Amino acid sequence: MKKVVAASMVGTVVEWYEFFLYATAASLVFGTVFFPNAGTKLDGIIAAFLTYAVGFVARPLGGIVFGQIGDRLGRKHTLQVTIVLIGVATFLIGCLPGFDTIGYWAPALLVALRFLQGFALGGEWGGAVLLVAEQSPDRSRGFWASWPQAAVPVGNLLATLVLLILSTALPSDQFLGWGWRIAFWISAVIVLVGYYIRTHVNEAPIFVEARAEMEEEKAGSCGVFEVLRRYPKGVLKAMGLRFAENILYYLIVSFSIVYLTTVHEYATSQLLLALLIAHAVHFAVIPLVGRLSDRIGRKPVYFAGAVLGATWAFFAFPMFDTLNPVLIVLAVTIGLCFHALMYAGQPAIMSEMFPTRMRYSGVSLGYQVTSIVAGSLAPIIASALLQQYQAWLPVALYLVAACAVTAVTVLTLRETKGASLRAIDEADAIRFAAQRGTTPRGVQGSRGSRA
């Protein structure tokens, strides 16, 4: 398990280093470099966040394509392709000339590379978490499957650390001119490391068995369209679970930068340092929450995250307004701890919603489609509300509405703590065979005895 977790985490760290590097750069740099004629500073930031949203639009497409490939050919090879694609896109972003050099070609090329980033990441998450979840013991799946989630703050931490060093070491004009590009170029080295590690991991036995049975039966019952036909409620519930978690996260790590730098002109280096500390705590908390979900259940932990998440903005923004560095760090850190209550259990919960033969497609679709209307729009909506009302209260009410959606979704779930993935596969096989009027293969045979 440790080897599998390490392979999953290293690749995920690479992917999210690059993805969140773009988010931070959109808050600090891209509005000036690629959208200098947008009007006010906040207008430029909103324009940069719109290009950021393009990656979220591309993610469901990546989830559909790579989900289909992953369910048919395997998780391992799919993950090798995604890490290379996102690495190439990120490196090229660092090479793009600015608006002053090539005019409107600059934002156009930025959008194209951002789309490729998002497309690759759309297939990354599902494969990474399933690589672990499908090999985890039933009683500790929440703990083991939370580790790929913990890799996300590590990637974010690395991106923040690199930008912090560059913004501190370089004068502002040099950082905006060329210094930020170094952070994107570094990704080439990290990608090689992640790709190498992923070549040394094996597929989960339960997936190998499911693939062999599909090939023997010549069954085409896998992929996105099949999961939508047979498990539409599972996909919708996965989307509902994701909604508040995704919005809360991007309000904390992206919009808080916008708020502090535009409303209070807070120093960039101090803000990046605050995020650095918060990401480190987030990394430490996620596995603990994963273990908690194995002990007391998935539902109570997730529900607590939704309820507490709804309260975050009401105390966080007043803490931001004090401009006290300690209170700012505390506000961001508490927010990410609330987020961890929802985020840590997602791989286990979503894995337990779908059978193996369509699990990659199911979790990818539920996870990635939601990001279009949640995480991608959250910084844009929050920035627009701030610009319109010149106050943080509308942003807080927006977060409350999102958390209400997720809380209601949690109440509709059945508790799956300790569930057997083999039992889920057997129940699906019985349903599938009944629809075709055949005898389910493996339920009373080899797979049944192993379960």
UniProtKB/TrEMBL annotation:
Membrane topology value: Multi-pass membrane protein
SUPFAM superfamilies: MFS general substrate transporter (SSF103473)
Compartment(s) of residence: Cell membrane
Lineage: Bacteria, Bacillati, Actinomycetota, Actinomycetes, Micrococcales
Annotated Major facilitator superfamily (MFS) profile domain residues: 4-418
InterPro entries: MFS (IPR011701), MFS_dom (IPR020846), MFS_sugar_transport-like (IPR005828), MFS_trans_sf (IPR036259), Sugar_transporter_CS (IPR005829)
Residues annotated as transmembrane: 20-39, 45-67, 79-99, 105-132, 144-166, 178-197, 247-264, 270-289, 301-320, 326-344, 365-386, 392-413
Entry keyword set: Cell membrane, Membrane, Symport, Transmembrane, Transmembrane helix, Transport
Protein name per UniProt: Putative proline/betaine transporter
